Amino acid sequence: MVDNGFVVNAVTLNPRTFAIQPFSTVYTTPQRFTRLSPRADYALSEKNTLSARYSWTQAEINGSGIGSFDLPSRGYRVQYTHQLVQLTETSVLGSSINETRFQFYRDANRSTPFDSSPSLQVLGSFNGNGSQIGHASFDQRDLEFQNVTSISKGTQLIRFGVRLRGNLYDDVSPNNFNGTFTFGGGLAPDLTIDPSGNGPLQPVSSIERYRRTLLLQSQGLSPDRIRSLGGGPTQFSISAGNPAASVHQMDAGLFIGDEVRVRPNLTLSLGLRYEVQTNISDWRDIAPRLAIAWSPSSGRTPAKYKTVVRAGFGTFYDRFGLTNTLTADRFNGIVQQQFVVANPDFFPMIPSLASLAGAKTTQVIERVASDLRAPYLMQTVVSLERQLPAHTTLAVTYTNARGLHLLRSRDINAPLPRSGMYPLGSTGPMFLMESSGVFNQNQFIANVNSKVNAGLSFFSFYVFNRARSDTDGVGTYIANPYNYRGEYGPAAIDVHHRLTIGGSINSRWNVRVSPFVILQSGPPFDITAGRDLFGTTLFNGRPGIATDPSKPGVLRTRYGLLDPNPVDGEALLPRNYGRGPGQKTVNLRIAKTFGFGPGKEHGGGARRSAGTAAAGAFGIPGGGQLRNIIGAPSSSRRYNLIVSMSIRNLLNHNNPGPIIGDLTSPLFGRANRVAGNLNGEGFSENASNRRLEMQIRLTF
Predict the structure, then answer these.
(1) Least confident among 37-41, 100-104, 126-130, 359-363
(2) Are 374 and 317 in contact (CB under 8 A)?
(3) Cβ atoms 229, 211 nearer than 8 A
(4) CA neighbor of 71 nearest in space, from 109, 110, 22, 137
(5) For residue 2, which of 59, 55, 57, 82 has the smallest C-alpha distance?
(6) Are the C-beta atoms of 364 and 265 separated by less than 8 Å?
(7) Helix/strand/coil for 232
(8) What average pLDDT does the segment 587-604 reach?
(9) DSSP state, residue 291
(10) What are phi and psi of 74, to 5 degrees?
(11) Is 11 exposed, middle or buried (0-12, 13-18, 19+ CB in 10 A)?
């Protein structure tokens, strides 16, 4: 049971004076989480075992969707239930092992908004009124079957198997059925010089446009007059039709691998995998893999090999998500309709759906490209591992990754430059999901692990990373559909430096102290002009690189002179050009184990389970080595009571969240929330820098 706060940091208006003012509040959000997960293992015979596990999770968040720019009225209640059934049968047949796995997963979500009034988005300032989510429900059912056989023959290990998966989604989503008014920035007359609107043009933010709208409406001015003075919404959108949709998908994967110890100091691994799925017409997903491990050291046992060189190459495919098919099936213009009106003159009234068939209304369509391919990554890795004195190991790794056919979206019916004609005849964007993106990454990784003695151990790794791409996923929309220049730039994961240092100090009183420090440089962020520059109904157009500081609207920023109103032919800022600040976090875990009862034959159970909990608290990925280092010590007794405390961000350092890239936002270049969203239990939170978690665990 967690009552956490959602912090809202926005810029709003004084309801009486219409003055622009900062707005900050903390909304306390009750969150409840319950999980039950029994497991049973049964020996069917001497060579056959059966494992069964069932997991049931129920949670409720009464105030999701609040925080950052979203005011408390945008909140909604979320209730979800997860159920997982897993069965595993293992057979030992001479020198071979066959494992059959079956899994059924169900996820049921329900969302209820606090307020169902029309939504209001003042870009880069605040989001208010009702939530767009509506009374929504989502039911997901997944089935998975795996069969894997391992055969050992002398110096050779052969593995082969198959995986089959089926997914079914039943979704009810009246998203934006209440309508949304959007205010963006732009150019408008300077009313401080000439209140009649004949003054020089100046850049206005979205909140200033909203302020002028309310102020001029209170004076009884007509919508046309309000717009001439720099007021009025930039866009109105609303969805209608059937909110229910159902989709399904199947995919299959076959693989075979052969690992051969050619010599005592040389191992060769070969593998081949084939994958296929429904909902796309791609049958070419063949993934070869090759790896080699070689030691120049001499010796008859692996312990003598103090230096090991490893190298490998592999192709790895990603599946086209079923949610993408759901989006295309729903927004095909028939099941649901998305209406968009540019510069509407009816704010704050909502027009009837019948009136939206007018000439000023466009309808948004979503489609999947007929030639779409599954994205894949080709990865090459070379590493050198060396055992050093004092039980220390050093590993240096270089990784190169090249991704092809990555997913992104573009408007294939955007107005043609200069003529304004629509290529498909009818007005309105048609967003096409296509696999035309590329990704390139180079990484250098240095890793040191040392167990100085039974009471002291430490680990550290440093990552130098360069990652560039022209997409960060299917939700990346090409800003200018007729000019891809500037799309290729830093990827969202282009964090150049990351240093992690951790360790463990064991005392003779069965107390373990485990510090864990993370330092990293800042991630990139996209800088946008805050308005629809290319008639796509999107506000992702990037500003121009200005050369004339006297041009109206040009803004002086830390990134140079930027023009939020670029003209045809003006060079635009590349994608993800901004760079946020770095982050640093000092974590600490202290654990004390009390052992009692008779002695146990096999130790380590307490260390593993408590270590897993600690790893989750610090956000450490899987890996027994790190979990054992930061976990709790075990005793030689059968029963262990472990009392521990995990402290995240011990120094309470403020790590900023995503940087606001809207050039016309009053908060441009700053963050209005802290980094991170989820804790170890899956709760949403954005109010805490430092978090202390007390844990009590009994193992036997």
Answers:
(1) 359-363
(2) yes
(3) no
(4) 22
(5) 59
(6) no
(7) coil
(8) 80
(9) E
(10) -85, 0
(11) buried
Q: Are 671 and 580 in contact (CB under 8 A)?
A: yes
93: tokens are 């047949």
Whole-number pLDDT of residue 193: 83
The predicted-structure confidence for 348-370, as pLDDT tens digits, reads as follows 999 888 888 665 678 899 999 99
Sequence-distant (6+) residues with CB within 8 A of 542 are: 479, 486, 526, 527, 528, 529, 572, 573, 574, 575, 577
β-partners of residue 401 are: 379, 441
pLDDT at residue 624, rounded to an integer: 46
Sign of the alpha-carbon dihedral angle for 424, 428, 434, 439: positive
Cα of first residue to Cα of last residue in the chain, in angstroms, is 26
Q: Which backbone phi and psi does 313 adopt, to 5 degrees?
A: -140, 140
Predicted TM-score (pTM) of the model is 0.89
What pLDDT score does 99 carry?
97
> What is the distance of C-alpha 687 from the center of its chain?
19
Q: Alpha-carbon distance 327 to 241, whole Å?
A: 14
Give the span between the Cα atoms of 557 and 307, in whole angstroms: 51
Bridge partner list, 666: none
CA angle 193, 557, 666 (to 5 degrees): 60
What is the C-alpha to C-alpha distance for residues 435 and 321, in angstroms, rounded to an integer?
13
Q: Quote the DSSP letter at residue 372.
A: -
Q: Are strands 285-294 and 266-277 parallel, antiparallel or unpaired?
A: antiparallel
Distances (CA, A) of 229 to 17, 217, 224, 553: 19, 12, 9, 16
> Secondary structure of the chain: what % helix, strand, coil (to 5)?
10, 55, 40
What is the distance between the alpha carbons of residues 47 and 44, in angstroms, rounded to a whole number? 8
Round to whole Å and give the CA distance between 681 and 700. Answer: 24
Q: Which helix (H) or strand (E) holds 326?
A: helix 322-330
Closest of 522, 561, 545 to residue 671, by C-alpha: 522
What whole-number percentage of the chain has pLDDT above 70?
92
Instruction: Please write the tens of the pLDDT for every residue from 281-314.
Output: 999 999 999 999 999 876 555 556 789 999 999 9
What secondary structure does DSSP assign to 606-648, as a single string?
Answer: HHHHHHHHHHHHHTPPS-HHHHHHHS----SEEEEEEEEEEEE
- The answer to whether residue 621 scores a pLDDT higher than 80 is no
Whether the pLDDT of residue 463 is over 90: the answer is: yes
Task: Say which DSSP state 656 is in.
Answer: B
